[in-house]
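In this supplementary section we document a worked example of the pipeline. Step one takes a protein sequence of length 135 as its only input; no multiple sequence alignment statistics are reported here. Step two produces a three-dimensional model, which step three serialises into structure tokens for compact storage. The input and output of this example are shown verbatim.
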Amino acid sequence: MNTQEVKTILGKYKCRATTIRVEALHLLSNQEKAFSISEIEEHLKEADRVTIYRTLNSFVELGIVSKVLNNKGVTYFFFKGIDHTAKCAHPHLYCKSCNKVICLPEYPESYLNILDNYKAEHISVLMEGECHNCH
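The serialised model returned by step three reads:
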């Protein structure tokens, strides 16, 4: 995704296209992997950690980026993609070899209907292992 496409996405979500936002979303959208804060910091050297956290969390709130927590407590951020739905109703697999986060099939509608009785706002399931390319 080029810089103009990134700015278009930010505009779609009524998010001002600051330099850090454009660079962060450009990084996430051009890689098929999830990034930890430390990895993002390495790429965005001119931004401090707090600014990066705020930027990524605003992306998460807007539904542009997802975040997942691995079993060691490390948060990873990844671009949802243009056709990724706002309400993420499927699990993900984190490949420990290549760091990709792969969308797995959606939960059955019968399961989601039961969750609606409980007013679930976010479903976060992260499986860890190896993707089919690394296995």
